[in-house]
Amino acid sequence: MTCLAIIGTETSFGAALQDRLERDAPRSETTPNVVGIPTRAADQAEALFCTASDVIVCSEAAASSWTASKTPRAVDSTLLTLWRRLAAAAGTRLVYLSGDELFRGPWMFHEEDSTRYASGRPADDLLAAEQAVLADSRNLVIRTHLVDGAPGSLADRLRQAADSGTALSVSSGRYATPISVGRFARMLKQILATSISGILHLGGAERVSPWELVTRLARQQNLTAVRIVPETHPSPQERSLRCTRLRHELGLYPVPLKDTLKDLSGMPGERLPGERLLRAA
Question: Which of 52, 226, 227, 256 suits 162 as a labelling partner, its CA being 20 to 30 A distant?
Fold first, then answer.
């Protein structure tokens, strides 16, 4: 029996993705339907590819441009070479989750076929990784902007500001189309049921800045005492993704921002690993 496999279970996004897919997968008494390994577990990779129908790479490259703790980077090229080789040998589709750092503007939305990329790292690293994955026509690159409530995230920083009574300073000039990791997992399951390959954008439906997201999240949670200070930029950084193939080829639609806010607030009643319910002040 084949299964879905995830590389990158040490990341908050990878752990949450595995948890969601496991709960949605059909049950089997003898064989796991979803398996995962850490990014650097090269010794476990061969066995993973031998049993998986699709292998999803959710490494640092999947981190969004809003990540405060580190700059998103593409994975080590040696590991990527190994995964490509194993996928080709096993006839397995490699699904590489990429971030939105490829783009910077001045256009508000970026299409899958856009060739106007940001210069310098990490954009150069991401582009090189994507091109390496797409050298095999079966493989799929999904560009996204994942958000959750893990330590250091915007939702977590808002909770800490509410608890401590301190001001929260966030960017008002970096625009993206965020999607919660839970909604992403649900849509990914539908996407993997098809044979789609190439580049696919899977983000939220609305362009928003970190300041706008946090402000709306605070209002939704009635955290009116938190002072949210907008950080300005010399020029806007536009990284929003337009999900053209998602709509036209798969008949799916990007997630509205209101649903992402519900997920970050814990309102659906099914929090994922790394997601914490915000407490009203």
Answer: 256
Separation of alpha carbons 54 and 193, rounded Å: 10
Are 62 and 11 in contact by the 8 Å Cβ rule? The answer is yes
Strand 140-143 to strand 198-201: parallel, antiparallel, or no bridges (unpaired)? parallel
Residue 256 DSSP code:
P
- Give the DSSP H/E element, type plus range, for residue 4: strand 3-7
Find the farthest-apart pair of alpha carbons in the chain and give their distance in angstroms, rounded: 57
d(CA 12, CA 149): 9
Rounded to an integer, the average pLDDT of 38-42 is: 94
- 86 φ, ψ to 5°? -65, -40
What is the reported pTM? Answer: 0.90
Q: Is 251 left (phi over 0), alpha (psi -120 to 50) or beta?
A: left
Which residue from 203, 85, 52, 193 is spatially nearest to 142, judged by alpha carbons? 203
- Whether the CB-CB separation of 78 and 69 falls below 8 Å is answered with no
Alpha-carbon distances, residue 180 vs 101, 114, 201, 212, 232 (angstroms): 18, 24, 14, 16, 25
